[in-house]
Amino acid sequence: MTTQTIPVETGAWVRRFHPGGQDARHRLICFPHAGGSASFYFPVSRALTPGADVLAIQYPGRQDRRHEPCLDTIGELADALAAEIRPWCDRPVTFFGHSMGATLAFEVARRLEAGGTVLHGLFASGRRAPSTVRDERVHLRDDEGLLADITRLAGTDSAVLGDPEIVRMILPAIRADYRAAETYRYQPGPPLTCPLFVLTGDSDPHVTAEEARAWERHTTGPYALRTYPGGHFYLNSQAGAVLGEISAHLG
């Protein structure tokens, strides 16, 4: 690993909900889905601390960063995050990304490896392989159309979507994330060398079995595919099993 200054405190991009894991041997960094925020991973942090130091990424344009402009391309997000995360790689680091977060985690991992930092592992959840392409344009819909897609995937609490004031606040971030995810196009390059674990729901409308298997071509390291009952947010009902997979890897 490259020589670097280890940060003492988290900043705008990084959240640590349970400081008890600071001295853990392994670090887990979690990337939220489109429209999501760092707090989505609070239960993961609670479950895995102090065995691991769990950090969650907070994208601009939401919650305490809601007054900051959103970044609406995976490239911009990955460039910013690679610089933010590199100092945290003072110990074995594993990424976990769900949906858009899986694509973003992959692109950050590519940037880190190009600089000499290899991850301990990457969990790609609820997302097709980077090299597979779909013509998706939900980000171009009006507000009602965008909310309809979010509701269909059940990624946001229905009570939140029923509050017009909250919806008005979060829609710009959701639209920016959808734009980032839907306009992303993989640029060919060297595959990763770290272990790659792909997790998917058996009824996820956004990931076919073939699209999930295609992740294998993106690493020369160990690869495993796990399929769980459920849709795009299968991990809400399969939290115990998913945490077990992560714990086994970190352990």
From TrEMBL:
<feature type="domain" description="Thioesterase TesA-like">
    <location>
        <begin position="29"/>
        <end position="250"/>
    </location>
</feature>
<dbReference type="GO" id="GO:0008610">
    <property type="term" value="P:lipid biosynthetic process"/>
</dbReference>
<dbReference type="InterPro" id="IPR012223">
    <property type="entry name" value="TEII"/>
</dbReference>
<protein>
    <submittedName>
        <fullName>Oleoyl-ACP hydrolase</fullName>
    </submittedName>
</protein>
<dbReference type="Pfam" id="PF00975">
    <property type="entry name" value="Thioesterase"/>
</dbReference>
<comment type="similarity">
    <text>Belongs to the thioesterase family.</text>
</comment>
<dbReference type="InterPro" id="IPR020802">
    <property type="entry name" value="TesA-like"/>
</dbReference>
<dbReference type="InterPro" id="IPR001031">
    <property type="entry name" value="Thioesterase"/>
</dbReference>
<keyword id="KW-0378">Hydrolase</keyword>
<dbReference type="GO" id="GO:0016787">
    <property type="term" value="F:hydrolase activity"/>
</dbReference>
<dbReference type="InterPro" id="IPR029058">
    <property type="entry name" value="AB_hydrolase_fold"/>
</dbReference>
